[in-house]
Write a sequence for this structure.
């Protein structure tokens, strides 16, 4: 589903803190604006880490030191925007910031810094290039023709509120959903669904990458606004997702990790809102598929596969990981499925850990495929976000066990 969108965009485009564990890396701060550096290059830490939190600090700091514009709180597609290709990086902003939000929850020493960036991110409308609706309110700057882009942004706005307790982000998410997302709903033979964009050519394009995050957004809004109909909307969009699945396990064809993960999390949230076990059953099926199917994993290693090098594709795994961890940590999850997913997450994390080049820190970049060491000439924010999301997720998972 996202291939056309990537083609369109391609045409348009032409800190770390040290710890007692010997796996931690020394802090490296910016020496000149956003350019990482300062101090001596740290001694490489050994692989096979025993402290996932320390490695999470390292990987997330690589994301912050190299890809975060600290004046705006938004992210570049390449280190310090060396490729000058960040103008249209919008929906991707949600998932890069999500990594910082999980880090802020995990490590209190990072919280103030990372949440300050989150507020700048909000003030700068997450780098949204569309300015058509600015001036309509705090929500207007987040308007976009792409329905799914707004849904991802809404989810991250809600996450900021969940971490900070400040409801201004939640209220903006609600307004974006109410004014720009849900009004786009259209009928299909089985009910109502959201089209990929507001363009006439997409009136029948009810893909998973739009309806799954929109379903999840509605479910999460219901937890804050219980009497405003969001649960019914979530159920409606869940049905749209199910009606358009090619089979019982795949959210879409081709199966992509991010839609498998998002649909799984939407199902899990609906289970907790309704008590209907069929939602949790579906969550387990679609999440497990992402980790065991040869469509989503690498046949040689069993880790999640290389999904592509563009900014969309390289981010997909960053979206799956937190939702997979949520399922593993859910006491109501199917124990066998949760154990399978946990084992696969650990396999992925240990594989990435083995292939990180500590000598290059703070440019210790994650590769597009976790079974190889980064060797490209220019690093990718999407790949780094996916890798940092994995290590943050495993740090959260292991700390909670």
């Amino acid at each position: 589903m996202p291939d056309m969108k990537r083609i369109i965009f391609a045409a348009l485009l032409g800190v770390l803190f040290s710890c007692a564990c010997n796996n931690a890396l020394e802090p490296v701060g910016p020496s000149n604006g956003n350019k990482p550096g300062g101090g001596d290059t740290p001694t490489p830490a050994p692989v096979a880490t025993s402290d996932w939190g320390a490695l999470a600090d390292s990987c997330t700091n690589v994301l912050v030191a190299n890809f975060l514009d600290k004046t705006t709180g938004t992210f570049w597609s390449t280190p310090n925007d060396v490729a000058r290709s960040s103008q249209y990086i919008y929906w991707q902003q949600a998932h890069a910031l999500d990594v910082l939000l999980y880090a802020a929850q995990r490590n209190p020493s990072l919280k103030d810094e990372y949440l300050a960036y989150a507020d700048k991110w909000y003030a700068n409308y997450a780098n949204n290039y569309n300015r058509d609706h600015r001036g309509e309110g705090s929500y207007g700057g987040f308007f976009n023709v792409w329905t799914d882009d707004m849904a991802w942004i809404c989810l991250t706005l809600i996450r900021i509120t969940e971490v900070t307790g400040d409801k201004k982000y939640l209220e903006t998410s609600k307004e974006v959903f109410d004014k720009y997302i849900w009004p786009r709903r259209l009928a299909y033979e089985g009910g109502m669904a959201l089209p990929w964009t507001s363009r006439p050519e997409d009136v029948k394009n009810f893909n998973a990458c739009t309806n799954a995050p929109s379903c999840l957004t509605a479910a999460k809004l219901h937890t804050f606004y219980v009497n405003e109909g969001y649960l019914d909307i979530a159920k409606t969009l869940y049905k749209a997702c199910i009606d358009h699945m090619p089979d019982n396990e795949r959210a879409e064809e081709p199966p992509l990790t991010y839609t498998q993960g998002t649909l799984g999390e939407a199902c899990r949230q609906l289970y907790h809102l309704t008590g209907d076990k069929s939602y949790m059953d579906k969550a387990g099926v679609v999440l497990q598929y992402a980790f065991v199917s040869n469509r989503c994993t690498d046949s040689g290693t069993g880790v999640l596969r290389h999904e592509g090098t563009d900014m969309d594709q390289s981010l997909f795994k960053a979206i799956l990981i937190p939702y997979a961890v949520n399922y593993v940590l859910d006491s109501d999850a199917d124990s066998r499925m949760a154990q399978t997913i946990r084992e696969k997450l650990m396999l992925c994390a240990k594989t990435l850990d083995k292939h990180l080049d500590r000598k290059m820190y703070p440019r210790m970049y994650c590769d597009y495929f976790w079974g190889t060491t980064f060797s490209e000439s220019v690093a990718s924010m999407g790949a780094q976000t996916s890798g940092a999301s994995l290590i943050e997720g495993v740090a959260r998972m292991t700390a909670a066990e």
